Amino acid sequence: MNDIDVLLQETRSFPPSAEFKAKAHVHDSRLHDDAGMAPHAFWAREAATLDWMKPWETVCEWTPPRAKWFTGGTLNVSVNCVDRHIHGPRRNKAALIWEGEPGDRRTWTYWDLYREVNLAANMLKRLGVTKGDRVAIYMPMIVESVIAMLACARIGAIHTVVFGGFSPDSLRDRINDCGCKVLITADGGYRRGQTVPLKRNADEALKECPTIEHVLVVMRRRSGVGDETFAEMQEGRDHWWHRLKRQVPKYCEPEEMDAEDVLFILYTSGTTGKPKGIVHTTGGYLTGAAATTKYVFDLKDEDVYWCTADIGWITGHTYLTYGPLANGATCVMYEGAPDWPDKDRFWQICERYGVTVFYTAPTAIRAFMKWGAPFVEKHDLSQLRVLGSVGEPINPEAWMWYHKVIGKERCPIVDTWWQTETGSIMITPLPGVTSTKPGSATTPFPGIKATLLDSQANEIAVGGGLLAITHPWPSMLRTIWGDDQRYVDTYFSKWEGRPDLYFPGDGAKRDDDGFLWILGRVDDVLNVAGHRIGTMEVESALVDHPAVAEAAVVGKSHDLKGQAIAAFVTLRAGFTQSGSLRDELREHVALKIGALARPDDILFSADLPKTRSGKIMRRLLRDIAEGRALGDTTTLADPSVVASLKDQYEAQE
Ligand code: 6R9
């Protein structure tokens, strides 16, 4: 029996408690039913909870594969996330409760946030940024990252956040792809007791970024070793955040943005070597972010909400920044690693701030499981009431552990499926409604139409198929920056003659109750510890090394990370395989892309298994990496290659 069948035999079901239901925003099926019949009316109602400067004329214009939402309407995202909370009882409410890895702590009220966002917006203006300009943000997990995003939104600049763990090369490529004018960074950040030299990385990247005119640098390392010499400032180009702040006016008039104006670009991996700049717009994105945050997490004013994602990923955009702040929530933000200085850091934080809603990734849950319950039991987690999971399929064992050890069998778990491209949660339980099953993301969010199709676009009622979204939704991507054709080809060309069907790249199964079980990517995209990485990206980084002639990269299952990277490499003449070359290649990939892409295994080989037309057969490499019997090898040009690879791989293990 394969894993999928084991999964589908999962019959345990966990209904919400009567107590939870009684207080939940949504406690019966009416929202799903009504929104199912009239999705536009549902989304219009949700959009109407935002502050608009000018009302929209049309809810949705759908000319497949192009959708526009709330056309004619205008609004400003920073006004919705900040200004509208400062006139009432939320004015002095904690917006962000921040903790640095070394233990420094600070709380920003909505009023604080309002002041800081205005100042930051004026700093950007002072540096010449105007509406439509691109601004790169390369930051640690500090509140200034959120402030920088909101400041861009305030003046209509388009931000592109680059994960602080990415290499200078990755930063450079993203800045150049969308032509950023300004980069916002910090001198450094903290991770597992080490400092991450962000400004130095940025300087390295900027050697080849002709469009960057100015760099705004936050001084993070003020407490501790920090001084101004950690970052070398380039006269005229670089500016300290805390100094420039003193020189600008305190109020910045928010830009009136069209609902369809671009809010941000976020790069994500696809099946080619080049990451895609996913484009999100203003009105629809914020509507999706706000509505899903409210309903999926049953978010209330009294909640203390903690999403552990880094700001560099879409989850950090939608569920750390825009969704919760649009709802006027109190959010926890933590800078560092979950096991620093000890493996109970997260639970210490939950206890200290009384976290009520906790949203994290399966890879983290599996690590907590491995570390053991005693780290959790040291802390009072009685305030928790909703638990969330995102980023990859959660195995039933991890789900049950989350339910028992963290949630004490009291807290509904929301397993939320979505993507950078979808902008907000698409398939998920609602905690006061859905009887959850461990391992299933359950059913589409109200107003979302998702289904399973076969390769001919026939619907699959029960069984396995390709996930498809059959109706537009407000927070959908609008295009890929600078490559509109790739938008059409990647997402709307899977089913011949059906540009109305969105293809997310995931496979799934539907059970007898109509519940969906996401199985993972069906393309050459890996999911390593919840991070999307294209096999081609890693291959390009490998062949960039002078010793490498050819490389093929596959994912193999990994207990903690979900998937790990296995690389098969052929060397150029004159180079010989060795342990030190293997280490060098692993480091080379980390240097080119970032540590998250460092391969676990590298196998040297004289040849790679190819079809007669020269295509590398990754399917067979996966069989080898996962120690399985080889699948069909009849199309191979030279079947002996793969047999010898398998022997070598096993010898190395
Ligand atoms: C939000 C985010 C998207 C890919 C997606 C899928 C996987 C995300 C999941 C899940 C199973 C879940 N994925 N959530 N798989 N169950 N609850 O992670 O965005 O980084 O773009 O990744 O992650 O394969 O296609 P992103």
Automatic annotation (TrEMBL):
<feature type="domain" description="AMP-dependent synthetase/ligase">
    <location>
        <begin position="91"/>
        <end position="463"/>
    </location>
</feature>
<dbReference type="InterPro" id="IPR000873">
    <property type="entry name" value="AMP-dep_synth/lig_dom"/>
</dbReference>
<dbReference type="Pfam" id="PF13193">
    <property type="entry name" value="AMP-binding_C"/>
</dbReference>
<keyword id="KW-0547">Nucleotide-binding</keyword>
<dbReference type="GO" id="GO:0005524">
    <property type="term" value="F:ATP binding"/>
</dbReference>
<feature type="binding site">
    <location>
        <position position="543"/>
    </location>
    <ligand>
        <name>Mg(2+)</name>
    </ligand>
</feature>
<dbReference type="Pfam" id="PF00501">
    <property type="entry name" value="AMP-binding"/>
</dbReference>
<feature type="domain" description="AMP-binding enzyme C-terminal">
    <location>
        <begin position="537"/>
        <end position="615"/>
    </location>
</feature>
<protein>
    <recommendedName>
        <fullName>Acetyl-coenzyme A synthetase</fullName>
        <ecNumber>6.2.1.1</ecNumber>
    </recommendedName>
</protein>
<dbReference type="InterPro" id="IPR045851">
    <property type="entry name" value="AMP-bd_C_sf"/>
</dbReference>
<feature type="binding site">
    <location>
        <position position="545"/>
    </location>
    <ligand>
        <name>Mg(2+)</name>
    </ligand>
</feature>
<keyword id="KW-0460">Magnesium</keyword>
<keyword id="KW-0436">Ligase</keyword>
<dbReference type="GO" id="GO:0003987">
    <property type="term" value="F:acetate-CoA ligase activity"/>
</dbReference>
<feature type="binding site">
    <location>
        <begin position="191"/>
        <end position="194"/>
    </location>
    <ligand>
        <name>CoA</name>
    </ligand>
</feature>
<dbReference type="InterPro" id="IPR042099">
    <property type="entry name" value="ANL_N_sf"/>
</dbReference>
<dbReference type="InterPro" id="IPR025110">
    <property type="entry name" value="AMP-bd_C"/>
</dbReference>
<feature type="binding site">
    <location>
        <position position="532"/>
    </location>
    <ligand>
        <name>ATP</name>
    </ligand>
</feature>
<feature type="binding site">
    <location>
        <position position="315"/>
    </location>
    <ligand>
        <name>CoA</name>
    </ligand>
</feature>
<dbReference type="InterPro" id="IPR032387">
    <property type="entry name" value="ACAS_N"/>
</dbReference>
<feature type="binding site">
    <location>
        <position position="548"/>
    </location>
    <ligand>
        <name>Mg(2+)</name>
    </ligand>
</feature>
<dbReference type="GO" id="GO:0019427">
    <property type="term" value="P:acetyl-CoA biosynthetic process from acetate"/>
</dbReference>
<feature type="modified residue" description="N6-acetyllysine">
    <location>
        <position position="615"/>
    </location>
</feature>
<dbReference type="InterPro" id="IPR020845">
    <property type="entry name" value="AMP-binding_CS"/>
</dbReference>
<keyword id="KW-0479">Metal-binding</keyword>
<dbReference type="GO" id="GO:0005829">
    <property type="term" value="C:cytosol"/>
</dbReference>
<dbReference type="GO" id="GO:0016208">
    <property type="term" value="F:AMP binding"/>
</dbReference>
<dbReference type="Pfam" id="PF16177">
    <property type="entry name" value="ACAS_N"/>
</dbReference>
<comment type="function">
    <text>Catalyzes the conversion of acetate into acetyl-CoA (AcCoA), an essential intermediate at the junction of anabolic and catabolic pathways. AcsA undergoes a two-step reaction. In the first half reaction, AcsA combines acetate with ATP to form acetyl-adenylate (AcAMP) intermediate. In the second half reaction, it can then transfer the acetyl group from AcAMP to the sulfhydryl group of CoA, forming the product AcCoA.</text>
</comment>
<keyword id="KW-0067">ATP-binding</keyword>
<dbReference type="GO" id="GO:0046872">
    <property type="term" value="F:metal ion binding"/>
</dbReference>
<comment type="similarity">
    <text>Belongs to the ATP-dependent AMP-binding enzyme family.</text>
</comment>
<feature type="binding site">
    <location>
        <position position="521"/>
    </location>
    <ligand>
        <name>ATP</name>
    </ligand>
</feature>
<dbReference type="InterPro" id="IPR011904">
    <property type="entry name" value="Ac_CoA_lig"/>
</dbReference>
<feature type="domain" description="Acetyl-coenzyme A synthetase N-terminal">
    <location>
        <begin position="31"/>
        <end position="81"/>
    </location>
</feature>
<keyword id="KW-0007">Acetylation</keyword>
<feature type="binding site">
    <location>
        <position position="506"/>
    </location>
    <ligand>
        <name>ATP</name>
    </ligand>
</feature>
<feature type="binding site">
    <location>
        <begin position="391"/>
        <end position="393"/>
    </location>
    <ligand>
        <name>ATP</name>
    </ligand>
</feature>
<feature type="binding site">
    <location>
        <begin position="415"/>
        <end position="420"/>
    </location>
    <ligand>
        <name>ATP</name>
    </ligand>
</feature>
